[in-house]
Design brief:
Length: 671
């Protein structure tokens, strides 16, 4: 996508406006300033035309770090590229909208363009006295603001000046934290996670990345380039990061102390930024001695290999969960755990992992069993389930990327539904303060996950975990809608292009509205889950009318027309034929206005519904009365001949009596 954005178009193209101040030129790409997921372009500041700036146009598949962008704005650290402005722009090369960011432009170029490239090695003195001090000072300012960089690598270093004496870290906000990092520049724990799920981490992760980057600068090349990712990670686990990254090379001099301190695999023992600053000032410090990794006196045999440490075995289990489950169910594992692991805390957690619940009603119990055991063996590692792996604060970004085709949505949903994050928290000896709110949120998110109504489910989870995520509904995804107030305008634009289609609220659209429009009640979405098509379309109209009344445009005629094709289903719910004919006749005029509230009142007026219902009930009563009369007549039918004879005899007797009286009277008168 970044390549597509950067393609130069023949002829001069007008600049794309970002806000009121900045312009980005789509036909003037800057290949040397592009990021792996964002294309760089010449930009101009209308208030300061001579300022040297550039714009990054981000790939829509990876969510930017919105919260970090906001925090970095205004931070003028010497060795950090900080954003001047950002926002959503229309981009002609892709025919859709993208998120774009404006940065100050480094004038000296990128240090290296790929990790296979070699450069002249930097001398230790040059690193200590010129290169590292501004980098470390900027990291200190970043950490003091509660932020992490998570994109420190040789290919993301720039020379700020044309003389190439001052280095700066490249941008760190166009993609999820550490999503673009090679394994060599990530800690063991972070390297175990899928790239999008590595999480914000802490200062310790950034300092580790800095240590690995220093090795590149010292030797002028990537010493571990011959190793694949899996092999390098295995080397780090078995030998330690310091030796794995040096790949047999030897170092002398004072810088060895710093590298040992920065590349210590235990984050509690790793140098912090104050240690590094003191070392740069000349106070030579011995790195803290890391605690020895507990090795079992006897190995556990798995998949043809011998494992002496809990971390190494957990990593192997996570790579082959099916075989791991078979091994866990055999007696050998329990014997090894009790006799050879030599770690009481790990043994207790393993017992809990093996015994915890049977996931009644859930599928995939074996996979969750393997995942829980992996957590118990290595609590510092990410949550690993099937092929999914994420740090506890990396679930949100990983879920976005899964919805964009980079991972399995189902596996993430199963991991959350199986309460694996909660088990991970229970395995931690202590929690960082920033993780406490995450622990509380997972239980709430699981309730959303279990609710299958539109507006909930895994789609709702993705927007709750990513407050600035744009709506992923296929109908409006290309519009890059972040705010609920923009939804109706996007739907109107889509409706103008799709005039022949009926309108439906898909699960992503419902979930986005539910998450972003906090006034929406749960009952608003009940109708969308109805089996009655008329009830569903009425629910959609009700929801969109509320949204229009909240912050939407006053008129959306194209959207109203698409909804209108389904409204005869609603009109047919009226019982009065004359009323139905009247509504259908007047409906086109109401649709043309594009006022969804008026349209809702027109087709589903409460007073009209009540009168129609009352009339219908009166008609039912009248019909019942007539039906009862007819029933009485039908019941009397068998006795009609007998009754007729009886009445005939009566009438005959009466007539005979009358005639007799009449004759008698006539005789008397004549006599």
């Amino acid at each position: 996508m970044a390549d597509q954005q950067a393609e130069a178009v023949a002829g001069s193209k007008p600049p794309i406006r970002l806000g009121e101040r900045f312009e980005i030129y789509p036909d003037r790409p800057l290949a040397e300033l592009r990021s792996p997921n964002a294309a760089g372009f010449v930009a101009v500041d209308r208030d300061r035309p001579t300022a040297s700036i550039f714009g990054l146009v981000c790939d829509a598949d990876l969510p930017p770090r919105h919260e970090v962008i906001q925090a970095l704005h205004g931070m003028r650290a010497e060795a950090l590229l900080t954003p001047y402005d950002w926002g959503v722009i229309d981009w002609p090369a892709t025919g859709r909208r993208h998120f774009a960011i404006i940065f100050e432009r480094p004038t000296g170029g990128r240090v290296v363009h790929s990790l296979t490239q070699t450069i002249a090695p930097k001398h230790e003195d040059e690193l200590i006295h010129h290169v590292l001090p501004p980098l470390v000072a900027s990291l200190r300012e970043l950490f003091a603001a509660g932020l992490t960089h998570r994109a420190i690598r040789p290919t993301n270093l720039f020379w700020r000046d044309a003389a190439q004496r001052t280095l700066a870290f490249g941008e760190c906000v166009s993609a999820p934290p550490a999503a673009l990092q090679p394994i060599a520049y990530e800690t063991i724990e972070s390297g175990m996670a899928t790239p999008a799920g590595r999480g914000n981490g802490t200062a310790a992760e950034d300092l580790y990345s800095l240590g690995a980057t220093i090795i590149f600068l010292l030797f002028g090349r990537n010493l571990a380039a011959a190793l694949g990712d899996d092999q390098l990670l295995a080397e780090k686990i078995s030998r330690g990061s310091y030796y794995a990254l040096l790949a047999g090379q030897r170092l002398n001099g004072a810088i060895v102390e710093a590298l040992r301190g920065l590349l210590t695999d235990d984050p509690r023992e790793r140098w912090n930024v104050q240690d590094l600053e003191m070392w740069l000032e000349g106070r030579r410090l011995s790195p803290k001695q890391p605690a020895l990794v507990r090795r079992a006196p006897r190995p556990f045999e798995f998949a043809g290999h011998s494992f002496y440490t809990a971390r190494a075995l957990g990593h192997a289990f996570s790579r082959d969960p099916a075989s791991a489950v078979r091994a866990l169910k055999a007696q050998d594992f329990e014997i090894w755990m009790q006799r050879s692991l030599c770690d009481d805390e790990r043994s207790k957690m393993l017992t809990a992992a093996l015994a915890e619940g049977h996931d009644i009603g859930l599928t995939g119990h074996d996979e969750r069993l393997a995942a829980r055991v992996c957590i118990a063996l290595d609590p510092a590692a990410p949550v690993r389930y099937k092929s999914f792996a994420a740090a506890i604060d990396g679930f949100g970004a990983a879920l976005v990327c899964a919805f964009r085709g980079r991972g399995s949505v189902q596996q993430i949903a199963e991991a959350m539904g199986g309460r694996l994050p909660q088990f991970w928290f229970s395995a931690q000896a202590s929690l960082r303060p920033e993780l406490v709110p995450i622990l509380k949120s997972f239980e709430r998110l699981r309730l959303y996950l279990e609710d299958r109504r539109p507006g909930f489910g895994i789609e709702r989870v993705v927007y709750e975990m990513n407050p600035k995520q744009h709506c992923l509904s296929p109908v409006i995804e290309a519009d890059y809608i972040i705010d609920a107030a923009e939804v109706l305008e996007a739907l109107e634009r889509a409706s103008e292009k799709r005039t022949g289609d009926d309108f439906q609220i898909d699960r992503h659209l419902a979930a986005f509205i539910a998450a972003r429009y906090r006034h929406a009640g749960h009952d608003w979405f009940d109708a969308l889950n109805s089996g009655d098509p008329a009830h569903r379309v009425l629910g959609a109209l009700y929801l969109l009318a509320r949204l229009q009344g909240f912050k939407g445009p006053s008129s959306v005629p194209a959207l109203a027309q698409r909804l209108g094709r389904q409204l005869p289903l609603v009109v047919d719910r009226y019982h009065n034929r004359g009323r139905r004919e009247q509504l259908n006749a007047e409906l086109p005029k109401v649709l043309a206005k594009g006022n969804l509230g008026e349209l809702l009142s027109f087709v589903d007026n409460a007073a009209e519904r009540m009168r129609d219902l009352q009339g219908f009930h009166q008609a039912l009563r009248d019909y019942a009365a007539i039906d009862r009369e007819l029933d009485l007549l039908r019941l009397a039918a068998p006795r009609r001949p007998e009754r007729a004879a009886e009445l005939g005899q009566r009438y005959a007797a009466t007539v005979a009596s009358f005639l007799a009286w009449l004759i008698a009277l006539s005789v008397a008168l004549m006599g």
